[in-house]
Write a structure and sequence with these properties.
By secondary structure, the chain is α/β, with parallel strands linked by helices. The protein is 51% helix and 12% strand. The protein binds fe (ii) ion (FE2).
Length: 389
């Protein structure tokens, strides 16, 4: 069943088969010529090929740019914009996990403004400069994790400085989000696991952040509950369509929550593991999350007790601190159940690099709403905790 929800920031079409409605949606946007921004793995999926064929059979044009790399850089975004200059599209279909969606948003800004990616970044004042004449974006998440489909943000690596920077503007918000569980059915188990924990991290960090916006809070708690119930099912049986659809919606909710409330220290530290060691984003978060939860919970034990309850822990009779600890244990157990690496050693992180990672983390603004303002020394200690004892 296709369901449609109208939100101030765009529309969501959700349900098995929703992908095949793209031609009709292009009509609503008065678009005839789509650039589909994705990566090679996704471009090889049957569901992707079927969606492209369906667009072309409707008489519209679809040009595929499938060269997006994991953790896209400023130069990746510029190459994407160069492709767009050749074909002159009137709509962007961002098809993928976080990397294609982030790249599509930043490339939209680069294409529209005709400047290098770094000049579109928030620090360079891009937020005020990106005009409303950007191309409309249709976002099709192929993993249930990033939440990129529901926010106005592309996180890009500065290839010279080795730091991630945000390209952000209300004019980069997707006009339409398509949640079709059929496209996630073929995902490798490891990707289902890691992206699902990324979504869980979004929900937890949004809920405990210092920005207590009640809509973000409510949506974050809902996402936690859905993820803890459905992620093990989607991991255990990749063809469980109901679990897949619930995970897509939970991921969107978690993304919605953090677009209001912000993220925290876990993402702040995880970004550096991706920048320096190319760690998959979800794995980096999963490794750090229980440690960051234990660190942060001293500042907001009641909030973390709510997290534990949302994750299904029995907290009857426990004080807030004891309840909060149950939540961190639950996350650890879930990550073990999902076969995610447990230690930084397992993903090739060099201990000697910890001070560099911590210095970079201090420059990362992602954790500015974190419950504790973290020092470099605390950050170093937390990274060290995540190595094999
Ligand atoms: Fe994330």
């Amino acid at each position: 069943m296709i369901r449609s929800f109208d939100l101030a920031r765009g529309r969501i079409n959700s349900g098995a088969g929703a992908l095949l409605e793209i031609p009709g949606e292009m009509d609503k946007l008065k678009a005839q010529r789509a650039v589909i921004i994705t990566d090679r793995n996704i471009a090889a999926l049957d569901g992707f090929k079927k969606a492209v064929e369906n667009i072309r059979n409707s008489g519209k044009e679809a040009f595929i740019y499938d060269a997006v790399e994991p953790n896209p850089t400023d130069t990746d975004c510029e190459k994407t914009a160069d492709f767009m200059k050749e074909i002159k599209p009137d709509v962007i279909i961002a098809f993928g996990g976080g990397s294609p969606m982030d790249c599509a948003k930043a490339a939209d800004a680069v294409y529209t403004m005709g400047v290098p990616t770094v000049e579109c970044g928030v620090v360079a004042g891009g937020m005020q400069k990106i005009p409303p004449t950007t191309l409309p974006i249709i976002a099709v998440p192929t993993t249930a994790g990033t939440g990129s489909e529901v926010n106005d943000l592309g996180v890009i690596i500065d290839s010279k400085k080795h730091v991630k920077f945000p390209v952000k503007s209300v004019n980069l918000l997707p006009k339409l989000i398509i949640l079709d569980p059929m496209i996630t059915v073929g995902l490798p188990k490891s990707v289902t696991a890691a992206t699902g924990i990324d979504a869980l991290t979004h929900a937890i960090e949004a809920y405990v952040s210092l920005s207590d916006f009640y809509i973000g809070d409510a949506v974050a708690l809902y996402a936690m509950k859905q993820i803890v119930e459905n992620l093990p099912k989607a991991y255990g049986n990749g063809e469980d369509i109901e679990a897949r659809e619930n995970m897509l919606m939970a991921s969107l909710c978690a993304g919605f929550a953090f677009s209001f409330n912000g993220l925290g220290l876990c993402h702040q530290m995880a970004h550096q593991l991706s920048s320096y060691f190319n760690a998959p984003h979800g794995v980096a978060n999963a490794l750090l999350l229980p440690h960051v939860m234990r660190f942060n919970m001293t500042a907001r034990p009641e909030r973390y007790a709510d997290v534990a309850a949302a994750l299904g822990c029995d907290i009857t009779g426990l004080d807030a601190k004891a309840a909060a600890l149950k939540g961190a244990e639950k996350v650890e157990a879930l990550c073990r159940q999902l076969g995610i690496p447990q230690y930084l050693d397992d993903i090739g992180v060099d201990k000697a690099m910890v001070p560099t990672l911590a210095d970079s983390a201090m420059l990362d603004l992602t954790g500015r709403n974190n419950p504790i303002k973290t020092t470099t020394e605390q950050c170093i200690a937390l990274y060290h905790e995540c190595f094999r004892p």
